Amino acid sequence: MVPVIQDGDVVLVDMGQNDLREVREGKIYAFSEGELIRVKRLIYKGSGELWAISDNKQTSPDSPIDMATFALIGRVIWVGHEVW
Question: Could you give the angle at the alpha carbon of 7 between the alpha carbons of 34 and 26, nearest 5°?
């Protein structure tokens, strides 16, 4: 499956959707972990642990979120890319 977001794409983030209690599981969010900004699907696994899920498992495997350094920026609501 081709990832929804490709290198160089522009994403529009709704920063009003930044309440962790209202995360819509499986939707794509922008968030930070320390100094790193990431754009991934968010899901809850097991005992409520939040995970970052990538559409491209070869370059970015699924990983648990480090909640000590996590900050939710907002939900991605639009993706655009250049037409060649």
Answer: 65
Strand partners, 80: 10
Quote the CA–CA distance of 7 and 58 in Å, as a whole number. 14
pTM recorded for the entire structure: 0.90
The tens digit of pLDDT for each residue in 17-30 reads: 999 999 999 999 99
Tokens 């290198």, residue located: 7
Distances (CA, A) of 23 to 2, 28, 58: 24, 10, 25
CA neighbours closer than 13 Å in the CB half-sphere of residue 28: 15
Domains with residue ranges and CATH for the chain:
10-80 (2.10.109.10)
